[in-house]
Amino acid sequence: MTLIGPQVDSPCSLPQNQKTAPYTTKRQRCSPLELPEILVMLGRHLPRDIVVVCLRVCHMWHQALLPWVWSSIKSRDTENLPQLSALETHAPLVRELYIRNSHCASLWGTVHFAGLTVLSISFPGSEKTVDLIQQHQSTLLFLSVSCFYSPELLEAILGCQRLEKLHFFKACINVSEWIVIYERLLHRLKVLTLSVSPRSTPNDPESLDDSENAVGRLNCSSTVAMLQNLSLVWESASVGKIQDLTFRGGDIQAHFEMIRKCPDLVRLSWCCPVDTTTRSPMHLLVQELQYGTGLDQLESLGLQQAFSNAYFTILIDRLPKLSALDLSCSSFDRQSWQLLKGSALSKRLKSLNLMKCPELSGSTLQDIMCSLVGLVTFKAELISETDLENDKRNWVCSGLKELRICFAPVKKPYEDVIALRLAQLTNLEVLDLDYSRLSLYLSIDGRENEFGVLDRLRTLRSMKSFRVLLSSVAWNNIEFEWVLEHWPKLRNLYVPVCGGNLGILAGQVDHHYY
């Protein structure tokens, strides 16, 4: 008889001084409940209250799951706040602290969190905010504060030497103070967001305009930069590190001067209504490209509300690295699509956003889906059954990972056509069908042996997020069971549900239901 197992030397084959008694060697076995990856999945995906229950399974589980319980503390629910004694005991495990009221700030301000890296404070008291920041200056990487500006607060923030991301909201400061923050923090931050509440006083001639557009948000140094009506800052600040730039309204010419100061710009989003009496954003960009200065590195371009066919061809032909277009809320139409279709950009375009383009027809959207082979992300509005009937070509964008589209009310035969085309997009990870009137359920009229469009989407095994809003049909347990079986990677689900049918997905999907 042959034994299957690890090969060990027989005691008879060993030298006399190395012989051991038989069956003294013990095999070490690891219980599946002790596998580290199992415990990580439990801590990462289960709700916090369930993880707390899991602490009681055994000592090893208690030690492994305890950091997941205490890693993030939030004060949104005042009824479930941790006891101060327990918080002091487990303070070294806390990595993220979110404070929403002054009571928690006073209570937790006496505790030192040695490993704190994320601190978010959302209440107006600046004195308590300063104390909390000063206690954790050596460890903070991300800081979000929403309170009135003060010199003491600025000094506390500047003392955080490891700080990488700063979100500063409701800061009541003037331009000169704003420039101080900008210049002293830009060189070492990856993300800087400033939402400025303008302050106007008779003795402050440099105060910001107190209109609604005087709210600025700036994210810089290799991330995003957004600014509204704060053009004075650009005159005294270096912005060479900015790679992503976003504008919302304001002075077009001032924005353009800002763009010219960013030689490393990779992503530009310019949302500004076109004013026929002045030069448009597209006109300024084309003019800059014709002179051959900068903008050659642009990979992503957004021109929401600032689109014009007159400059479109020149613009896309002179940006050799461009691969993403966001033309939402613009006048993009069939003529625009023909210009794009005939350009070299159509062969390398990976992302296209055409949401809320009122002049764009469903037939044009169908042509886009049948023409752009390399699309990875596509967002648009509406395709009707007439569009599908007039153009029976298959969609060619097989590499599509994110699709947001709405199908108008369709007849039963065309549901199968839509399902077939969606099923061929096997790489889809995010699918948003909005208010599409499709039979996206498994049980029709109470007969569970009849299947709708949803069952034909079993090929989409990479699905991570699925969203559809149906006014007349709600999901039941049979649909949820199908989802768990056929979409193993699903993390977000937005669907209408019948009452009492939420438990089947608890702990398995980060679900949101309508």
From TrEMBL:
<protein>
    <recommendedName>
        <fullName>F-box domain-containing protein</fullName>
    </recommendedName>
</protein>
<feature type="region of interest" description="Disordered">
    <location>
        <begin position="1"/>
        <end position="25"/>
    </location>
</feature>
<dbReference type="InterPro" id="IPR032675">
    <property type="entry name" value="LRR_dom_sf"/>
</dbReference>
<feature type="compositionally biased region" description="Polar residues">
    <location>
        <begin position="13"/>
        <end position="25"/>
    </location>
</feature>
